[in-house]
């Protein structure tokens, strides 16, 4: 346990109804699994967020930042420390100016990716359509460098604003960000010295004026393809594994391993897309972890390829 009596008292007095203790994470992840978080806090505004992070950092209490929990597998043992949710305090999307290459749209970390896509479509702005249909929030999308075959976050971002544990914030330009496939590493020399994980507050996206009708047709085609190829109607976290840098995709490797449709407990490798593990019937996190281990061992033995997880696993 990371929280003592005084810490619980401080959280309750500062956040009132916006803090819950021993809150089941199964209520807050798209997989619908996960044990309890010691404390689950939804800050009302950015000042509350800054105060909470600085206090947690000073008290050496671990914190986990989440949005919609769409790429998260929380173990049945739960989470020690504080889960901080950004969807209430950081949710606005605004057109903030023009850049050398187009229009600048600033989306806060707790805003949904789908809302940013709609914002751009309504204004005839091109550059973010690749994200149509991707679940989750802007902050998670940036940290995961979310994308599809049509593009990724790094291609549209102009800069990000991060909150340091000290309570200060800093804007980082695109050229200073260390993006890779489905990942952003915030190892910038100016922010690592503060000894704590920085938090993305917003992203500035450089989008270009385009034909609104063309963009809408493109978005509809992308959505149609996603629905045809990916399972819907059952809880999942999207693609469970990153695709290898060359050769067959993760889904193809899992299917060729004969694991498509395989289940453990209530978790199942989707019969529609083998890189999706779905919650078929009241699965536990242990069910998902068991299938994950089976997939990784089988693919490694058959193809000598070590699959890299896209889904983040948290908990002791």
Please describe the structure with a list of short key phrases separated by commas or semicolons.
Uridine Diphospho-n-acetylenolpyruvylglucosamine Reductase, domain 2, 316 residues, 27% strand, alpha+beta, Uridine Diphospho-n-acetylenolpyruvylglucosamine Reductase, domain 3, Uridine Diphospho-n-acetylenolpyruvylglucosamine Reductase, domain 1
Q: Which helices and strands occur, and which strands form pairs?
A:
Elements: H1 5-15, E1 19-24, E2 36-41, H2 46-59, E3 63-66, E4 72-74, E5 79-85, E6 93-98, E7 103-108, H3 113-122, E8 125-126, H4 138-143, E9 147-148, E10 151-152, H5 153-156, E11 157-163, E12 169-173, E13 178-180, E14 183-185, E15 199-209, H6 212-229, H7 250-256, E16 263-264, E17 267-269, E18 277-279, H8 285-303, E19 312-314
Parallel strand pairs: 2-5, 3-5, 4-19
Antiparallel strand pairs: 1-2, 6-7, 7-15, 8-15, 9-10, 11-12, 11-15, 13-14, 16-17, 17-18
Plain-language structure description:
- The protein has 316 residues and is an alpha+beta fold.
- The protein has 3 domains: 5-85, Uridine Diphospho-n-acetylenolpyruvylglucosamine Reductase, domain 2, CATH 3.30.43.10; 93-229, Uridine Diphospho-n-acetylenolpyruvylglucosamine Reductase, domain 3 (2-Layer Sandwich); 250-314, Uridine Diphospho-n-acetylenolpyruvylglucosamine Reductase, domain 1.
- Helices cover 28% and strands 27% of the residues.
- Strands 6, 7, 8, 11, 12 and 15 form a 6-stranded antiparallel β-sheet that branches. A 4-stranded mixed β-sheet has the order 1-2-5-3. The protein has a 3-stranded antiparallel β-sheet with strand order 16-17-18.
- A hairpin with a 2-residue loop joins strand 13 (178-180) and strand 14.
- The termini are close together.
């Amino acid at each position: 346990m990371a929280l003592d009596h005084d810490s619980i008292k401080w959280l309750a007095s500062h956040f009132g109804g916006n803090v819950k203790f021993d809150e089941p994470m199964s209520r807050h992840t798209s997989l619908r699994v996960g044990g309890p978080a010691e404390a689950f806090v939804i800050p009302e505004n950015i000042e509350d967020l800054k105060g909470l992070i600085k206090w947690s950092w000073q008290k050496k209490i671990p914190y986990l930042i989440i949005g919609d929990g769409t790429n998260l597998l929380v173990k049945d043992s739960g989470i020690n420390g504080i889960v901080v949710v950004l969807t209430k305090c950081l949710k606005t999307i605004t057109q903030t100016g023009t850049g050398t290459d187009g229009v600048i749209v600033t989306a806060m970390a707790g805003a949904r990716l789908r809302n940013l896509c709609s914002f751009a479509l309504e204004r005839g702005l091109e550059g973010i359509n690749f994200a149509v249909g991707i679940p989750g929030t802007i902050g998670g999308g940036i940290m995961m460098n979310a994308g599809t075959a049509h593009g990724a976050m790094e291609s549209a971002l102009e800069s990000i604003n991060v909150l340091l544990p000290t309570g200060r914030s800093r804007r980082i330009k695109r050229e200073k960000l260390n993006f890779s496939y489905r990942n952003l590493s915030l190892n910038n020399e100016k922010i690592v010295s503060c000894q704590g994980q920085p938090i993305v507050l917003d992203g500035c996206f450089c989008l270009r004026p385009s034909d609104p009708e063309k963009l809408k047709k493109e978005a509809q085609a992308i959505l149609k393809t996603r629905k045809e190829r990916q399972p819907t109607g059952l809880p999942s976290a999207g693609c469970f594994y990153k695709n290898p840098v060359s050769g067959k995709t993760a889904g193809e490797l899992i299917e060729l391993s004969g694991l498509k449709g395989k289940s453990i407990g209530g978790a199942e490798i989707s019969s529609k897309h083998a890189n999706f593990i779905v919650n078929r019937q009241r699965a536990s996190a242990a069910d998902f972890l068991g299938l994950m281990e089976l997939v990784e061992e089988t693919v490694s033995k058959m193809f000598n390829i070590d699959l890299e997880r896209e889904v983040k696993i948290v908990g002791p």
